């Protein structure tokens, strides 16, 4: 991790899970397949189901709901449920650091609340580091312990959420609200 250069970046990849804003689940595969086969995890069926249920619970589903959706296709799930399955797809690999890129960027307010709760639940259950990249200051305020403010690709302030958000200018708030 301390060696410079692009040729060494692969060393960290196995420890990092990334959920993009525009995540994709395989629409023709069941939730169980999306969590296991589709990302290269090969388990006996019973073990795969057990691990999938545990991971879906970490992403905010109940045990009953987890069992119910395992054989369903992603298209039959709500947007919030699909997002939680995508989060579970990241968590099933047991990363040490989870990076969420604009996790609520295109969501309606109700789904945002659902996703916020699933992320907070996942953080508590997995006890791993979550890095959230977001322009949504309310979401940052509600979900983060610490915060970093970037301007033009440079980190200019790191600290408590309140300290860092106090540095955001009114013009930046307006721009973020428009996005």
In terms of topology, how is this protein built?
Layout: H1 10-13, E1 16-19, H2 31-35, H3 45-58, H4 63-69, H5 79-91, E2 97-101, H6 109-126, E3 129-133, H7 137-143, E4 146-151, E5 154-160, H8 161-165, H9 170-178
Parallel strand pairs: 1-2, 2-3
Antiparallel strand pairs: 4-5
- Classified in CATH, the superfamily of the largest domain is P-loop containing nucleotide triphosphate hydrolases
Tally of individual helices:
9
Shape: globular
- How much strand content do the residues show? 15-25%
CA-CA gap between termini: 34 Å
Output mean pLDDT.
87
Relative helix content:
40-55%
Q: Got a strand count? A: 5
Major beta sheet, specifics?
3 strands, parallel
CATH architecture of the largest domain: 3-Layer(aba) Sandwich
- Counted up, domains total 2
Features:
2 domains; 179 residues; two-stranded antiparallel ribbon; three-stranded parallel beta sheet; globular
Sum this structure up briefly:
Helices cover 46% and strands 15% of the residues.
What does this structure look like?
The chain contains nine helices and five strands. It starts with 9 loop residues before the first helix and ends with a helix. α5 (79-91) packs parallel to α6. Helix content is 46%, strand content 15%. It folds into two domains: 12-136, Rossmann fold (3-Layer(aba) Sandwich); 145-179, no CATH class. It has helices at 10-13, 31-35, 45-58, 63-69, 79-91, 109-126, 137-143, 161-165, 170-178, and strands spanning 16-19, 97-101, 129-133, 146-151, 154-160. It is of the alpha/beta class and 179 residues long. The radius of gyration is 17 Å and the shape is globular. The strands form two sheets. A three-stranded parallel β-sheet has the order 1-2-3, with helices on one face. Strands 4-5 form a two-stranded antiparallel ribbon.
